[in-house]
Amino acid sequence: MSFGRLERRKGSEPMSEINVTPMVDVMLVLLVIFILTAPLLASSIKLDLPKTDAAKSGAAPAFVTLVVDKTGQVFLNDKPVAADALRTSLAQTAAQNPDTEVQLRADETVPYGKVVEVMGAAQKAGLNRIGFVAEAPQAFLPGKP
């Protein structure tokens, strides 16, 4: 009667390599913690700022609208304007506030050269903040052309 084998099995050998999976998990958790706390550290200084009437925090940014229609006619704030009058009006606007934004709207059939000409007039006047206004494409709806 035997209670077990007489043979001996060799036990499992110790690992000679480092398991990096737990280390990567810890590093990712630390990364997430730093990402979440970084914005909080930037605004941690509490200040009592002085109050003045000169500071206008709610003031809307100034802008002018330039429109170039299909025929190449230029409109400044929805009023037709000639090339010379456009340059002088933009120069006056830049003298009053050089941070004024130019919102440029051009018809898609207008030649590229005309759009560049209007942009150049704005930049020569000293208005370097130029934004292009475009419409978002309509989503495709089944059953509608």
Name the features.
Nucleotidyltransferase, domain 5; alpha/beta; 5-stranded mixed beta sheet; 145 residues
Verbal overview:
The protein is an alpha/beta fold. It is 34% helix and 15% strand. It has a domain at 63-132: Nucleotidyltransferase, domain 5 (2-Layer Sandwich). A hairpin with a 2-residue loop joins strand 2 and strand 3 (79-81). The model has no long low-confidence stretch (mean pLDDT 79).
In short:
This protein is α/β, with parallel strands linked by helices and 145 residues long. The protein has helices at residues 21-42, 83-96, 112-125, and strands at residues 63-68, 74-76, 79-81, 101-106, 129-132.
Topology:
Elements: H1 21-42, E1 63-68, E2 74-76, E3 79-81, H2 83-96, E4 101-106, H3 112-125, E5 129-132
Parallel strand pairs: 1-4, 4-5
Antiparallel strand pairs: 1-2, 2-3
State the helix count.
Answer: 3
Q: How large, in whole angstroms, is the Cα Rg?
A: 34 Å
Strand order of the largest sheet: 3-2-1-4-5
The CA-CA distance between the termini, in Å, is: 90 Å
Uncertain residue segments: none
SSE string, helices as H and strands as E: HEEEHEHE
CATH architecture of one domain: 2-Layer Sandwich
- Class inferred from helices and paired strands: alpha/beta
Instruction: Give the CATH topology of one domain.
Output: Nucleotidyltransferase, domain 5
The fraction of residues in strands falls at 15-25%
Round the mean pLDDT to the nearest integer and report it: 79
Sketch the major β-sheet: 5 strands, mixed
CATH class of one domain: Alpha Beta
Shape: elongated
Helix content: 25-40%
* Overall number of strands: 5
